Amino acid sequence: MKIAMIGTGYVGLVSGVCFSDFGHEVICVDKDPGKIDRLNAGQVPIFEPGLEALMAKNVAAGRLSFTLDLAEALAGADAVFIAVGTPTRRGDGHADLTYVMTAAEEIGRALTGYAVIVTKSTVPVGTNRKVAEAARAANPDADFDVASNPEFLREGAAIDDFMRPDRVVIGVETPRARKVMGDIYRPLFLRDFPVVYTGLESAEMIKYAANAFLAVKITFINEIAALCEKVGADIKDVSKGMGMDGRIGNKFLHAGPGYGGSCFPKDTKALARIGQDYAVPMQITETVIKVNEEIKRRMIDKIVDLCDGSLNGKTIAVLGVTFKPNTDDMRDAPSLTIVPALVGAGAKVRVVDPQGQREGEALLPGVKWLDTPYQAAQGAHLVVILTEWNEFRAMDLEKLAKKMETRRMADLRNVYSAEEAKEAGFETYVAVGR
């Protein structure tokens, strides 16, 4: 089948590459000439493990290409996926659908034969019907159906998530559209991965409900972690005991500095706003948003306490600033709240991150970027583990401690233990919920 993918951001590029690996002919479209030039030169504009090699493989096989020309991409296409950004709109918390609606209008004008217009972007309930209206208004004679196909990709594990999904959700209303979508995902169906067919509104809601629930789990365990610190319990033991309950599960029960990234902050805000619009307040989700911000501020308090109540003049080594490991994504990362607070309080902040510097240099002014934890720890008063990259999971703690002015660690991802830190020579070790 021939697929046009509109947008070569994270979702569009990963999805386009993976569809081409299924054997489909995929043309990815973007309006940014520089991005298309880089992609045609084999350069991946984002960091995602395995993506560059998979892209090169399918380009070489002739199944994957990149263009600025929408008409070229749509010619003969069986499906057109909209995978453009839906950032939080300033002022009201709504998802900004400007790019989605623009794409719908342009697709409507460019269609010359039947195709399914598929919304891959995360959009509020009712958007797919608006997409249909926009395309129809642009071209009353266009022959198309719409479908909702939300993505559930974890950054850092996106290819595996696409190829081995927990489920594929497809919202359709006609047998013709269902057949096209079934043919597109046939390689997964043949391997017994579940494909869930629903109506448009249900598919749209599944995405928001799933992300909001995961955000609830993260925020809940972080609140329990704060209580553990007061009562003398260990959050790792608590999480393990909870997670063994099959009704709860062990995923997303790791205490830390709060959630971030491209999905959870944006989608929880959008769901809260949708609830307000329909007079059904999402009170749990609204509380989660509030508590998640409080958790980040609590991490700052931990760091200040470790520095005897004042950060002024202190040298702090921060290990990891991306919102999670195995990505270069800085969107809504806890570091964007925590690091500026340290700098603003007079600390000299040194940062180490395997992939974060490209985006982080503009987002975190006033910090010094270094290559290794040991360089950052030289003469430092405190080491803070903020993102649990593998590079920070097996450090030589004794070597790290010996380089420091005062041997103190704030392990905000619970990578190590107090015993390990003490044996390595750290005088003070503080974790989350322990």
Structural description of this entry:
- The chain is an alpha/beta fold.
- Helices cover 45% and strands 14% of the residues.
- A 6-stranded parallel beta sheet has the order 3-2-1-4-5-6, with helices on both faces. A 6-stranded parallel beta sheet has the order 11-10-9-12-13-14. It has a two-stranded parallel ribbon with strand order 7-8.
- The longest helix has 32 residues, at 200-231.
- It is elongated.
- The mean pLDDT is 96.
List the helices and strands and how they pair.
Elements: E1 2-6, H1 10-21, E2 25-29, H2 33-40, H3 51-60, E3 64-67, H4 70-74, E4 79-82, H5 98-110, E5 115-119, H6 127-138, E6 144-148, H7 158-163, E7 168-171, H8 175-184, H9 186-190, E8 195-198, H10 200-231, H11 235-243, H12 264-277, H13 283-306, E9 315-319, H14 335-344, E10 348-352, H15 357-363, E11 368-369, H16 373-377, E12 382-385, H17 397-402, E13 408-411, H18 418-423, E14 428-430
Parallel strand pairs: 1-2, 1-4, 2-3, 4-5, 5-6, 7-8, 9-10, 9-12, 10-11, 12-13, 13-14
Helix pairs in contact: 1-3, 5-6, 10-12, 10-13, 12-13, 13-14
Q: What is the tally of helical segments?
A: 18
Radius of gyration: 23 Å
Determine and state the CATH class of the largest domain. Answer: Alpha Beta
* Helix proportion range: 40-55%
Identify the strand order in the major beta sheet.
3-2-1-4-5-6
Q: Round the mean pLDDT to the nearest integer and report it.
A: 96
Oligomer: single chain
Whole-number tally of structural domains: 3
CATH-defined superfamily of the largest domain: NAD(P)-binding Rossmann-like Domain
- The tally of strands reads 14
Note the main sheet: 6 strands, parallel
Assign the CATH architecture of the largest domain. 3-Layer(aba) Sandwich
Q: Using the alpha-carbon principal axes, give the shape.
A: elongated
CATH topology of the largest domain, anyone? Rossmann fold
Query: Are there runs of 5+ residues with pLDDT below 50, and where?
Result: none
Strand content: 5-15%
Query: How would you classify the helix and strand content by structural class?
Result: alpha/beta
State the separation between the terminal residues, measured CA to CA: 54 Å
